[in-house]
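Researcher: Let's do a round of design. I'm pasting the structure tokens now; please hold your answer until I've finished.
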């Protein structure tokens, strides 16, 4: 079974997707996220989707093409999780309470 291994990097230059060993080359089809505000990123359990937060929006990309298929504007999201079947994406943002 020859599966392609990918790994994601969230670093000082933003979020990037790389091929696994032996080359570790950047995946050119993925438009690198230059935001340094990425707090979380996750693959769905089946490996079909990759989601991340850039501090302003939640983005979901299809792994088959590495193209963003949807964006959700939510600036305070700090955690993401796909459901076990990958059919739902849950987001979490801290509750700050009401300002008096």
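Researcher: That's everything. Go ahead.
Model: Designed sequence:
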């Amino acid at each position: 079974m020859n599966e392609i291994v990918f790994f994601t990097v969230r670093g000082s230059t933003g979020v990037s997707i790389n091929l696994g060993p032996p080359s570790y080359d950047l995946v050119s089809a993925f438009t690198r996220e230059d935001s340094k505000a990425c707090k979380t990123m996750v693959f769905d359990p089946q490996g079909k989707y990759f989601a991340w937060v850039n501090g302003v929006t939640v983005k979901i990309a299809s792994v088959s093409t590495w193209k963003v298929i949807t964006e959700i504007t939510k600036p305070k999201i700090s955690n993401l999780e796909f459901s076990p079947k990958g059919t739902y994406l849950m987001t979490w943002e801290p509750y700050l309470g009401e300002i008096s």
